[in-house]
Amino acid sequence: ILHKSDVGGVALDLADADAVAGAMRAMAGQLGIRSARVEGYLGDRG
Fold first, then answer.
1. Are 34 and 7 in contact (CB under 8 A)?
2. Arithmetic mean of pLDDT over the chain
3. Segment 1-40, tens digit of pLDDT
4. Whose CA is closest to 8, among 45, 38, 17?
5. Under 8 Å CB-to-CB from 26, ≥6 apart: which residues?
6. Neighbours of 10 (CB within 10 A)
7. Mapping DSSP to helix (H, G, I), strand (E, B) and coil, where does residue 18 land?
8. What angle do CA 14, 23, 21 make, to 5 degrees?
9. pLDDT tens digit string along 30-45?
10. DSSP H or E stretch at residue 19
11. Which residues make Cβ contacts (< 8 Å) with residue 4, sequence separation at least 6?
12. Record's Gene3D superfamilies (predicted)?
C-alpha cells in the first residue's frame, strides 16, 4: 500500500483558492494513473 505522500497526494503552502484548485487537479491526474479512486480532499489552514 502506497502512502499519499509517495504518490503526489500532499500539497503544502497553498496561498489561495486558485492554488488549492490547481493542486486538486494535479493530484487527481497523478493518482488517476495509478487507478486510485479519489473519494475527497482534506484541507487545513494550519
1. yes
2. 83
3. 777 888 778 999 999 999 999 999 998 887 766 666 777 8
4. 38
5. 8, 11
6. 11
7. helix
8. 85
9. 776 666 677 788 888 8
10. helix 17-33
11. 10
12. ATP-grasp fold, A domain
- The amino acid at residue 13 is D
Which grid cell is 46?
Answer: 494550519
The 3-state DSSP composition of the chain as helix, strand, coil percent (nearest 5) reads 45, 0, 55
Q: How far is CA 1 from CA 10, 23, 24, 40, in A?
A: 16, 22, 21, 18
**Type of residue found at 34:** R
Q: Counting runs of H as helices and runs of E as strands, what totals does the chain give?
A: 1, 0
Q: How far apart are CA 1 and CA 18, in angstroms?
A: 31
